[in-house]
Amino acid sequence: MKNLPDIKQLAGRVAKDNDKEAYERLFYHFYDNLSRFASSLLGHESVADDIVSEVFVNIWRNRAHLPEIENLQTYLYVAVRNLCMRYLSRRKTILLSLDTLDGDYLLSPYQTPEEKVLSAELISKIEAAIQKLPPQCKQVFTLIKVDGIRYKDAAQILNISLKTVEAQMAIAIKRIRLAVDTDLAHFRN
Fold it and tell me: Backbone phi, then psi, for 140, in 5-degree steps?
């Protein structure tokens, strides 16, 4: 994630001091990844943005309870997931895909210098391989490798077991490695 003062410190400032600047920093820090996550669940970008905004409105309304949240990042992902599921159930639609992956997705600011050196051709092959992953596998891979979520937190966000997350990551890495026919050891933990 982007360099930012301690998330707990910012959350504390929001809770105790009603600090709007700290709230904005939290918002901008998490917004893009949460919107991408919501969009992957919904398949609709504008609805995803509305849902993420609603989560942050709720955070502000209930800011006094922020210090009680142990891991704000996981909390936000779970809140977004829950609102997305509620939206989908109201529409009686279940769409759990990551078909909105765009070309800049892997060129995340969280990459190591080695990852930034990857050629455009290799990135294109990786993107194509990711697109071909089964939906849940693609979602797990994206949360862990693109958004930087821990395995345990990804399991909680997606409401699946840790073993399922580990299995899906193993499948994703194997398929991507086979697709690009190159050593992608830097994708391993």
Answer: -60, -45
CA distance 133 to 100: 13
Same domain, 63 and 120: no
Based on the structure, what is the number of domains in the chain?
2
What's the CATH code of the domain at 160? 1.10.10.10
Same domain, 122 and 72: no
Hey, what's the torsion of the CAs at 164, 169, 170, 172, to 10 degrees?
Answer: 120
Residue 186: the pLDDT is: 43
Domain that holds residue 169: 113-187
Record the pTM. 0.56
Cα–Cα distance between 20 and 118 in angstroms, integer? 39
DSSP 185: G
The beta strand positions in the chain, using DSSP E, are none
Q: What tens digit of pLDDT does each residue of 88-123 get?
A: 766 643 323 333 334 444 444 445 555 455 455 666
**Looking at the domain assignment, is residue 2 inside a domain?**
no
